[in-house]
C-alpha cells in the first residue's frame, strides 16, 4: 500500500495533505481548519487547558492552540482552505480510504471530489461580505505585495475594525492567520519544487530561514526539516491543472 511509504505531501487548491509518522507535536496552532486521522492507531489531542481527547479522526479548527501525540504512528493531516467547514463528524475509515486514493491517483480531482464526498464539506455557514471576499482575494494572490489590515481596509473602502472583525467572523481565522497560511502554502510549493529552505524563506516573504522555521514550528508543531528532508514524495497541483512532482 502506498500509505506504507515514509511521507507524502499533496498541495493545491488552497488545501494540503501531509502523511507521515509523528511522535508528540508540542503546542501549536494551525492557520487553517484541519482534519486529522490516525493511520496506525488513535491519537491524543490536548487542548490549551490540558484536556486530553482520544481520537481516530477529528476536526481541528484553525488558530486554536493544541498539542498532539501520535506515539510514533502514521497519520494524515488534511488542511482545508480557510472558511471550509464540515457538515458532520469525521468517519475515520472513509477518510483513510480517501487519503489512499488521493495519494495513488496524484491528480487534482481528489481535492474537489474525494474529500468533498468523504468529509461532506460545506461552505462557511455565513455569507461573506463582498469587501471581506476582496480582502481574502488580495491576501491569497501569490504575487500581491504584502499588506497590513489598515492598507487592506483602505483598498476595500471600509474601517480597519470592521474588516478585522468581519474577516474573523466570516472566514473563520484572523487576517494574520489567513495571510500566514497562504505564505506557508507558497513556501511549501517551492520546497516541493526542490528549492532550499533558505531560498524558500526569502521567496515566500519571510525574513530568513530562522524566521520561516520558527513560524512553521508554531503552526505545525515540528520544524520544516522534519517535513522536507526526510524522504518526502509529493506533488503541487497548479491552478491550471499541471502537476509538479518530487
Write structural notes for this entry.
Pfam families: HTH_18 (PF12833). GO terms for molecular function: DNA-binding transcription factor activity; sequence-specific DNA binding. InterPro entries: AraC_XylS_family_regulators (IPR050204), Homeodomain-like_sf (IPR009057), HTH_AraC (IPR018060). It is a single chain. The chain is an alpha+beta fold. It has ten helices and 13 strands. The protein has two domains: 2-122, Jelly Rolls (Sandwich); 130-220, Homeodomain-like (Arc Repressor Mutant, subunit A, Orthogonal Bundle). The strands form three sheets. A seven-stranded mixed beta sheet has the order 7-4-9-2-1-12-13, with helices on both faces. Strands 3-8-5-6 form a four-stranded antiparallel beta sheet. Strands 10-11 form a two-stranded antiparallel ribbon. The radius of gyration is 17 Å and the shape is globular.
Please give a handful of descriptors for the protein shown.
39% helix, Homeodomain-like_sf, Transcriptional regulator, AraC family, 2 domains, globular, DNA-binding, Arc Repressor Mutant, subunit A, HTH_AraC, 10 helices, transcription, alpha+beta, 246 residues, Jelly Rolls
SSE blueprint:
Elements: E1 7-12, E2 15-21, E3 24-28, E4 34-38, E5 43-47, E6 52-55, E7 57-60, E8 66-69, E9 74-79, E10 85-86, H1 92-105, H2 109-112, H3 114-119, E11 121-122, H4 130-140, H5 149-156, H6 160-171, H7 175-192, H8 197-203, H9 209-220, H10 224-228, E12 232-237, E13 243-245
Parallel strand pairs: 1-12
Antiparallel strand pairs: 1-2, 2-9, 3-8, 4-7, 4-9, 5-6, 5-8, 10-11, 12-13
Amino acid at each position: 500500500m502506498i500509505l506504507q511509504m515514509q511521507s507524502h505531501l499533496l498541495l493545491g487548491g488552497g488545501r494540503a495533505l501531509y502523511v507521515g509518522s509523528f511522535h508528540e507535536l508540542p503546542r501549536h496552532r494551525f492557520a487553517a481548519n484541519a482534519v486529522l486521522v490516525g493511520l496506525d492507531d488513535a491519537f491524543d489531542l490536548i487542548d490549551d487547558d490540558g484536556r486530553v481527547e482520544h481520537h481516530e479522526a477529528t476536526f481541528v479548527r484553525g488558530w486554536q492552540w493544541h498539542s498532539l501525540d501520535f506515539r510514533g504512528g502514521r497519520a494524515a493531516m488534511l488542511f482545508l482552505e480557510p472558511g471550509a467547514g464540515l457538515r458532520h463528524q469525521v468517519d475515520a475509515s472513509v477518510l483513510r480510504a480517501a487519503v489512499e486514493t488521493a495519494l495513488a491517483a496524484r491528480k487534482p480531482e481528489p481535492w474537489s471530489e474525494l474529500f468533498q464526498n468523504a468529509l461532506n464539506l460545506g461552505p462557511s455557514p455565513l455569507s461573506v461580505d463582498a469587501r471581506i471576499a476582496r480582502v481574502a482575494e488580495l491576501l491569497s494572490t501569490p504575487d500581491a505585495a504584502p499588506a497590513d489590515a489598515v492598507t487592506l481596509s483602505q483598498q476595500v473602502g471600509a474601517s480597519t475594525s470592521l474588516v478585522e472583525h468581519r474577516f474573523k467572523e466570516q472566514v473563520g481565522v484572523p487576517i494574520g492567520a489567513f495571510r500566514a497560511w497562504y505564505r506557508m502554502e507558497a513556501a511549501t510549493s517551492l520546497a516541493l519544487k526542490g528549492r532550499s529552505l533558505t531560498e524558500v524563506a526569502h521567496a515566500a516573504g519571510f525574513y530568513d530561514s530562522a524566521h520561516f522555521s520558527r513560524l512553521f514550528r508554531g503552526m505545525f508543531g515540528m520544524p520544516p526539516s522534519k517535513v522536507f528532508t526526510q524522504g518526502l514524495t509529493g506533488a503541487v497541483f497548479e491552478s491550471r491543472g499541471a502537476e509538479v512532482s518530487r
